[in-house]
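INTERNAL TRANSFER SHEET
From: sequence group
To: structure group
Subject: M24 family metallopeptidase

Please process the attached sequence and return the structure record in the designated field. Keep the field labels unchanged so the import script can parse them.
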Amino acid sequence: MTTERLRQQVLSTPHTAMIIFSDISISYLSGFTGHAATVLLTDKANYLITDYRYVEQAEKEAHDYIVISRDRANQSLASLLTEIIIKDSCQSVSFECEQVTVAQWHDVKQAIAAQGITEFTPIYQSVEKLRRVKNSEELNAIRQAAAIADQALANILPLVKVGITEKELANELDYQMAKLGSEELSFATILLFGERSAMPHGVPSSRALNHGDIILIDFGAVINGYRSDMTRTFIFGEASEQQREIYQLVQNAQQAAIDAVKAGVRGDAIYQESANILQASKYKEFAGEGLGHGVGLQLHEQPFLGPDCHYEMELGCVVTIEPGIYIPGWGGIRIEDDVVLNEHGLEIITQSPKALTVL
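Return from structure group:
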């Protein structure tokens, strides 16, 4: 149980309470998928505080939690938290410091301190660190999301023709993912033509497709809250020698990183395998920073694969591998896959073909 894992890591001392504020953390710990909630963990029990709008949903989803419906008109969150902390004889409080506003924490801390509790410990990304390793249910959701994205991409490729705009093709891709069962977009679809593909996170525009254009598509689907993330790059019409050269360079860099993903290998070492290839090329000044990131309930989560990543890969860790070359005024080429380490080795979750395709 994820809540117990958190208890072992953070609530190791007796009489300590922990307050969780973020929706993502609460969903991961309790199973509650609504909003307007706060979780309080004490020695005595797990509490989920919400209001009348979500109390029935919380009681159905958060099975290991005592669900409390707060009367927002007559009781502040600060006073209710304090009431429970005093009732459960807590002597210190840990809190999810990166997920609470200054104003909200000021009220909570002031109310608790008024009862004689003065030990407050900020915790940094404790839940996020737990989320690095996915269980079988989480992995199956990511696989389903990736399969939807794979099929949606295959469904829109026949629509590629001269004159279609980035927005039109992106809208069709989004529609196909929804039609195939995606709960929402993993993130706003990035679909760019020609020279605009040099923007790693560009927004689809009315730019129309021409012969010889690069088509860069970065997108994902969502199942049970879990996300996929994939980038494919195509050429419309005949590919130039430079397009083929850069595509092969990026593909080689990605494959080198994929080959390096093994249990116990640090993220910076995986990054370096890719960087060595890109930095040895004549396009090194146009190489994107970083290599990839964890993906799950959030699009970008730990670990972040780069020169400062000291995390050692574990079984169940899902990461993206996405090197790219971005040349202003010319275009960009990125290839991205979601991969996971399992008991059989490395699994590439995203399955769309990666060989350079000329449409």
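Handover comment: The first strand starts at residue 16 and ends at 20. The longest helix spans residues 136-156.
Transfer complete.
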